[in-house]
Design brief:
Blueprint (H helix, E strand, L loop, with lengths): L5 E4 L3 H16 L4 E3 L6 E5 L3 H11 L9 E2 L6 H4 E2 L3 H10 L4 E7 L13 E5 L4 H10 L2 E5 L11 H8 L5 E4 L13 E4 L6 E4 L5 H7 L16
Parallel strand pairs: 1-9, 2-9, 4-7, 6-10
Antiparallel strand pairs: 2-3, 3-8, 4-8, 5-6, 6-7, 10-11
Main location: cytoplasm
InterPro entries: DHBP_synth_RibB-like_a/b_dom, Sua5-like_dom, TC-AMP_synthase_SUA5
Catalytic activity: L-threonine + hydrogencarbonate + ATP = L-threonylcarbamoyladenylate + diphosphate + H2O
């Protein structure tokens, strides 16, 4: 595999099962796939395959200092992959998963994976997309990053993803247009590894929406209030 990419229109019943099966085979072979999510198209690899993750980073032209987040199929998987999950982070997960929220958490130290230079953390998300969730239900956790070359716009169609990533991806799953009116809206990323939860990337979920669940979440660039006051 790898010399010629395969593409499947998974919005058609005749190609859906064949496409999902081909994607599973590619992932098992430690190769990369492109899949639709609820935000933009993603390039994915088995989260527990060091070779697959290395190929993902290479396809994007991305260094190990920018490790990919991990997509999971259900909130219950979070405790298998992360430790010391703060109650506030759990509240956000329960409110916004499945959805466009990525939580950075302390990774389970016993896991045998290599996502890059993570400093002991992992970004987790449950996507709100039936195709992605069905695939994740079969494969387990996938390392998934936006399906584009680093520095280029995120792909909202399979055509855009294929134009940027080409033969570095074995299987392309075409699920139609993603993003609101073609506008790429990535997930909002919240770091929950420290004393305060804070937004590190503003995306599809607004700070106001986050604060309706956890009022003390810090916005992009905000610092915690002084304790001396």
């Amino acid at each position: 595999m790898g010399t010629v990419s395969s593409r499947f229109d998974i919005s058609e019943d005749t190609q859906r099962e064949e496409g999902l099966a081909a994607a599973r085979q590619a992932l098992q072979a430690q190769r990369c796939i492109v899949l639709p999510t609820d935000t933009v198209y993603g390039i994915g690899a088995d989260a527990f395959s060091a070779q697959g993750v290395a190929m993902l980073l290479a396809a994007k032209g991305r260094a190990r200092t920018m490790p990919p987040p991990v997509l999971i199929s259900q909130i219950g998987t979070m405790d298998g992959l992360a430790i010391d999950v703060p109650p506030a982070a759990r509240a956000l997960a329960e409110a916004f998963w499945p959805g466009a929220l990525t939580l950075i958490l302390q990774a389970q130290p016993s896991l045998t994976w290599d996502l890059g230079e993570t400093k002991g953390t992992v970004g987790l998300r449950v996507p709100d997309d039936a195709d992605a969730l069905e695939l994740l239900g079969h494969t387990g956790p996938l390392a998934v990053s936006s399906a584009n070359r680093t520095g280029q716009p995120a792909a909202t169609t399979c055509d855009e993803a294929e134009a940027q990533l080409g033969a570095s991806v074995d299987v392309y799953l075409d699920g139609g247009q993603r993003g609101l009116l073609g506008e790429a809206q990535p997930s909002t990323i919240v770091d929950a590894t420290g004393e305060h939860l804070f937004v590190v990337r503003q995306g599809a979920i607004s700070l106001q929406a986050l604060r309706e669940v956890v009022p003390e979440v810090l916005g992009l660039g905000e610092s915690a209030p002084s304790q001396d006051a």
